[in-house]
Structures are given as structure tokens and as C-alpha cells.
Design goal:
four-stranded antiparallel sheet, binds S-adenosylmethionine, N-terminal domain of TfIIb
């Protein structure tokens, strides 16, 4: 079973769940940190439904989104008037085949928003993927990678949660998401079990499905070791959105800015 289950039904409600994120600001922030202006080319690793890729495109930055979930990429492609235009491209599959298919193209920066690295099963595979990403990064170029901070997860454990969503395009539809976390401290893994109920008030009928997302979370010391093994120099390690600020056990979401030196 894959570590995280981004199947068709989950992909269809993903944007509803995360509609409140300020994706444009996140993309601008990353563009500034990575020095991505004027025709540079960025790769979004684990781009999901493509919101950041489109936000980069709106800034005039050429952007490629890669995700292993075909369903998430299908949602992303549906948003583009001209699919896979020169400025915005999407791809799914394995990272190895994606990198191979690039025929030597290198990126001026790589971003990975919202804990994609934690969806990779083992630290060894994380290093393998980071090494592959490094190989497609121009020398001197940087990656910005968001991850769960294991130190914070231990101190402030994930809790069960219920959220209600109303779709502004269809007010007669109501969606409820129940999240039940299952934390395995020894193996540093948290299974987030989502149960999603989708109610159509017009007919009174509802559908439901489940999706399990397993996240392997590491501590800062362990992430630093991964980057060292992948030969990526750490430029900054900071609470998400606050560069040059020390990480503490209070911040769940942290970011790494790393560079390919040669
Ligand atoms: C929490 S979502 C984040 C999506 C997007 N980056 C965002 O900020 O909304 C995690 C995404 O990572 C993708 N993913 C997980 N493991 C991956 C892997 N090994 N390679 C590429 N994509 C992966 C999933 O399919 C999913 O779309």
C-alpha cells in the first residue's frame, strides 16, 4: 500500500479542503528565496493539484509540476486552458522516469510544499529522491522543502479533528472530513485516517470514502543528515515562512533551503 493515498476521490476534494491557503504568497516567497525571476524554470516536486505551479506561471516563471498521483495531476491539468503549454507543464509517474525523460534539462530551483518528503516511506528512499532532484538542479541553484518537524510532533501530538466545508460554487453540497491520527512514535510515522462524507442537500443523499495518508516524520538532526547524504548544502532551516529564525519544538511545519554547490 502506498504511504499516502491520493486517489481520485481525495483528489476531487483536495482544493476544497485547502481553499484557504494563500498559494500566491507562498509562490512569491519561494521565488524570492530561490532567486526565480525573469524566465527562470522551477520544478514543483509533489505539486498536487497544481496551485503553486499556476501561481509561478502568473509571476512569469516557467514551472513544471511533478506528482506521483495521476489523479492529482489530472486535477491540475484540468485548470490549465492550454494543457502543458510551454510555461506550465505537469507530469506524473515515478521520479526516476520523470528525471530520465527530461533529457538533461536542469531547473533553476525546486520547491516542495506541504510535506511531500514525509510521504516517502523510508529515509533511504528520501535520500534517493533528493539525490535525483539534485541531479536536475543547476549548480548553485536551490531547493525549498517543507516538512513536518518530528521534535514538535513528539511534544504536541496530532489530535482527531472534524471539519465542515461548503463549496462556494455549489452551496447545496456540504462536505465533512473526519481525521483520526494514529501516531507510531518508535517508527516516527503518523497515519492520518480521513473519512470524508459528501452530502447533497438537494437530494438528501450522501457518499463517503476513506483515504489514509502515512507520514514519516524526522527530527531536524535527521533531516540535516539526509541533506548531507544527498550532497545538498543547508543554507537555512526555519519555521515555515520565517527565514533565519531558529527552529524550536513548538513549530510543526519547518522549511529547508538547500543548495547544489557543484
Ligand atoms: C499534501 S500534498 C501536497 C500537494 C501540494 N504540494 C500542495 O502544497 O498542495 C502531497 C502530495 O505529494 C505527492 N507525493 C507523495 N509522494 C510523492 C513522491 N514520492 N513523488 C511525487 N509526489 C509525491 C502526493 O501525491 C500529493 O499530491
Amino acid at each position: 500500500m502506498p504511504l499516502s493515498d491520493y486517489h481520485e476521490r481525495f483528489a476531487a476534494v483536495y482544493d476544497l479542503f485547502y481553499a484557504r491557503r494563500d498559494v500566491a504568497t507562498e509562490a512569491r516567497f519561494a521565488a524570492d528565496l530561490l532567486g526565480l525571476r525573469g524566465g527562470r524554470h522551477v520544478l514543483d516536486f509533489g505539486c498536487g493539484t497544481g496551485a503553486h505551479v499556476l501561481a509561478f506561471g502568473a509571476l512569469g516563471i516557467k514551472a513544471t509540476g511533478f506528482d506521483r498521483s495521476e489523479a492529482m495531476i489530472a486535477q491540475a491539468r484540468a485548470k490549465v486552458a492550454l494543457p502543458d503549454s510551454a510555461a506550465v507543464t505537469f507530469a506524473d509517474g515515478t521520479l526516476a522516469s520523470f528525471c530520465h525523460g527530461l533529457n538533461g534539462v536542469c531547473f533553476d530551483g525546486v520547491v516542495s510544499f506541504f510535506n511531500v518528503l514525509n510521504c516517502i516511506e523510508t529515509p533511504r528512499e528520501m535520500v534517493e529522491d533528493l539525490t535525483l532532484l539534485r541531479s536536475r538542479l543547476a549548480p548553485g541553484a536551490k531547493m525549498l522543502i517543507d516538512v513536518w518537524n518530528g521534535a514538535a510532533v513528539f511534544v504536541n501530538e496530532p489530535r482527531p479533528d472534524v471539519k465542515h466545508y461548503r463549496n462556494p460554487d455549489d452551496p447545496q453540497r456540504e462536505t465533512v472530513r473526519i481525521t483520526v491520527p494514529d501516531l507510531d512514535r518508535v517508527n516516527q510515522c503518523c497515519a492520518l485516517r480521513y473519512r470524508v462524507l459528501d452530502l447533497d442537500r438537494r437530494t438528501g443523499s450522501f457518499t463517503e470514502f476513506e483515504s489514509v495518508h502515512r507520514l514519516r516524520f524526522l527530527t531536524p538532526v535527521q533531516y540535516r543528515h539526509l541533506f548531507e547524504l544527498a550532497e545538498l548544502a543547508i543554507v537555512d532551516e526555519f519555521p515555515k515562512g520565517r527565514p533565519q529564525t531558529p527552529v524550536t519544538e513548538d513549530e510543526w511545519y519547518i522549511s529547508y533551503l538547500v543548495r547544489r554547490d557543484a
